[in-house]
Amino acid sequence: MKKIFFLFTIIMLVISIITACSSDGDNLNIPENELQTAYEVKSDIQQPMSVFIENIPEEYAAFKAPMANAVSLREKAIAQEIGNPDIKLGFRKITYLYPSTDANSKSLKLSAVAFWLGYFDNGVWNDLKPDNICLMEHYTITSDLEAPSNAFSFEMFVTGNTLTIMPDYIGYGATKELPHPYLNHDVCAINSIDALTAGYDLFKEKVQSGMSNGWKLYLAGASQGAGNAIAVHKYLDTHPELSAKWNFASSNCSSGPYNPVVTIDKYLTDGKVAYPVVFPLVMKTMFSSYPDIMKGFTEEMAYSQNYLAVKSEIDNMIAGKQHDTSAINRVFIEKVRKTVDETLADDEIYLADILSPEMLDKESPICKALYQCLEKNDLTKGWTPVHPMTLHYSTRDMVVPQENSLAMLEAFGEDIVTLNKSPLPVDHTTTCSLWMVNLLSSGF
């Protein structure tokens, strides 16, 4: 099933890119003196779309020909427009550094990517004029090689003819030596707004023709990226002058932990989890971000004895940023999981094998403290949305339970929240893949 949706996503991805179009004009209404944010370009890559076709794995070789044909059709359309049959559709990816702050308001330089489309005319690069801006928030990663600045993330290619900004987040790219503030929505929102501002400044300098008339800002993301996107949505809607300056339109997200309280509560109620790496990621962030709340407790107090036996190994994997989430989850299954029965899926583990009895008890002091930290990142409270959001979800998502999306609808109503339930009860990964396909085919 995963391979099918992976292939479908790849096909739709290329078709979307090659059929993207541009228009003339620029409707900037953001004062120049409010956008001058320092940035430093680290790399500027311009490549033909054929790079993707050439790097499709052998097992998917059957799809190379139709993709190449689709690219050829779009290139012919551009060639006819400019009168040169030798153009090649391509993309431009610029990695840059920009100033922002961490959870303690300490200044630091983060990395991000600005991405847009263009074409090669006799080997000379030409930028296409983007129709819109998309701030795209990436999903959960634990390997630095997966960061947007180090990879060609799928999410870059699903937004059509846009100026796409993708932050690495603290803990990846330029700050890979730092811990990532997982589910600290306030910090990620500020970092993303700063990335957007710097990325737009960069784009203005690189592309003199600017944006198309009537451009809008859209927010998007899947999984953790969905939570971060809605955190930015909250920031913009609670700063209306900023929202107006950015021509903010709406958000389109999939399977996000909009309410970490609901997420962890669902895990505790079910007594098991299919994505165990979430626990050390969450614990480390809550202890570091809210020391006043977690005062008197230690990380070790949250875990079972058999988890503590391999905690240093998992900590090193997370800190080293060389292993993806699948590798870390395998350690949980192979070394932490002790209890197995017929009701447990291959990728699931009982919480009793990970957490201490105190952390499993919602009435215990340490569990109450954790919930207090999580409540600070509950995106269903503390604001009134102004702009609409479309949230995709699945009833069979065991990683980010459907209760997150349902809580958003309950909090803000149908005038703001549009829920798109997956037509099939698919898992988390497939739900996010379907969201990408939907974004490719239908837009924002």
Give structural notes.
With 444 residues, the protein is of the alpha/beta class. The protein is built from 15 helices and twelve strands. It has helices at 2-18, 50-54, 64-82, 185-206, 224-237, 240-245, 260-270, 278-289, 305-308, 311-320, 325-336, 357-360, 365-375, 403-412, 428-442; strands spanning 40-48, 88-101, 107-121, 124-127, 132-137, 162-167, 217-222, 248-254, 272-273, 349-350, 389-393, 417-421. Strands 1, 2, 3, 4, 5, 6, 7, 8, 11 and 12 form a ten-stranded mixed sheet that branches. A two-stranded antiparallel sheet has the order 9-10. A hairpin with a 2-residue loop joins strand 3 and strand 4. Helix 1 runs parallel beside helix 3, helix 1 (2-18) runs parallel beside helix 15 (428-442) and helix 4 (185-206) packs across helix 5. It is globular and about 70 Å long. The two termini are 26 Å apart. The model is unreliable at 1-36 (pLDDT under 50).
